[in-house]
């Protein structure tokens, strides 16, 4: 048999991803640290902190987004068996959006309490849902068949998970388009929608366990249609 180059180990993707998440999480805190001179020079220390609530709120929201994304990434990643070009590039594009999150948080912080509020909310939403959009674009090249091999200890059937994953990602991508579009008209409503979406992802293990029965139903429905 002719020898061929093999794909990289998933551990290399994990190492890069952890580094990107670490840097992005650190960058989020810089906006807060930059407030120290302004707050320290204020006559009313606590009032100055409250006046900068958009920065503190944006930091909190951005931190929850990044940390819950990292959490979910490793929950599903531990069941991934091997890699291929699709997996490597999907993870690479995901890291591109992770690296952009501090930019989205900074825009939200600077514009949440200004007339440019809608644009701050808009671009934060783009950073929040961008990974879902690019993943669906990549999935289109494989006719929405998830080219991922799962380990045998995956709690649900690997075939079911493979069929249900693009449906879940697709629904989330559409939901993101609707919310980001809404931000240009009703930014506060869109921001509430972002918050609800983010809060639904903070416990990925529990979420996946609750979703398992529904994933099986979705996959079976898809199989019947095909």
Your description of this structure?
By secondary structure, this protein is mainly α. It has one domain (10-225). The chain is built from nine helices and no strands. It has helices at 10-33, 36-41, 45-51, 53-77, 85-111, 117-140, 158-182, 187-199, 204-225. Helix 1 (10-33) runs parallel beside helix 5 (85-111), helix 5 runs antiparallel to helix 6 and helix 7 packs antiparallel against helix 8. The longest helix has 27 residues, at 85-111. The chain is globular, with a radius of gyration of 20 Å. The relative contact order is 0.11.
State the distance separating the first and last CA atoms. 36 Å
* Alpha-beta classification: mainly alpha
List the domain count as a whole number: 1
Low-pLDDT sequence parts? none
Strand content: under 5%
Mean pLDDT: 88
Give the helix level as a range of percent.
over 70%
Shape assignment? globular
- The SSE string, one letter per element, is HHHHHHHHH
Number of helices: 9
Number of strands: 0
Largest β-sheet summary: none
Q: Which value, in Å, is the CA radius of gyration?
A: 20 Å
What would the keywords be for this entry?
mainly alpha, 9 helices, 226 residues, globular
Topology at a glance:
Blueprint: H1 10-33, H2 36-41, H3 45-51, H4 53-77, H5 85-111, H6 117-140, H7 158-182, H8 187-199, H9 204-225
């Amino acid at each position: 048999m002719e020898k061929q180059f093999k794909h990289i180990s998933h551990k290399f993707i994990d190492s890069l991803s952890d580094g990107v998440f670490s840097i992005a999480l650190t960058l989020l805190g810089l906006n807060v640290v930059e407030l120290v001179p302004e707050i320290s020079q204020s006559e009313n220390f606590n009032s100055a902190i409250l006046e900068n609530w958009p920065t503190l709120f944006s930091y909190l929201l951005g931190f929850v987004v990044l940390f819950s994304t990292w959490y979910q990434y490793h929950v599903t990643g531990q069941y991934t068996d091997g890699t291929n070009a699709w997996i490597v590039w999907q993870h690479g594009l995901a890291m591109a959006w992770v690296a952009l999150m501090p930019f989205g948080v900074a825009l939200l912080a600077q514009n949440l309490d200004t007339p440019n509020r809608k644009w701050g909310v808009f671009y934060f939403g783009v950073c929040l849902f961008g990974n879902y959009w690019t993943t669906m674009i990549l999935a289109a090249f494989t006719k929405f068949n998830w080219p991922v091999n799962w380990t045998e200890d995956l709690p649900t059937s690997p075939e079911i998970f493979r069929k249900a994953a693009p449906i879940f990602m697709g629904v989330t991508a559409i939901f993101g388009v609707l919310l980001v579009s809404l931000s240009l008209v009703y930014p506060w409503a869109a921001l509430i929608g972002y918050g609800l979406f983010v809060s639904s992802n903070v416990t990925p293990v529990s979420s996946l366990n609750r979703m398992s029965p529904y994933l099986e139903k979705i996959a079976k429905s898809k199989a019947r249609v095909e």
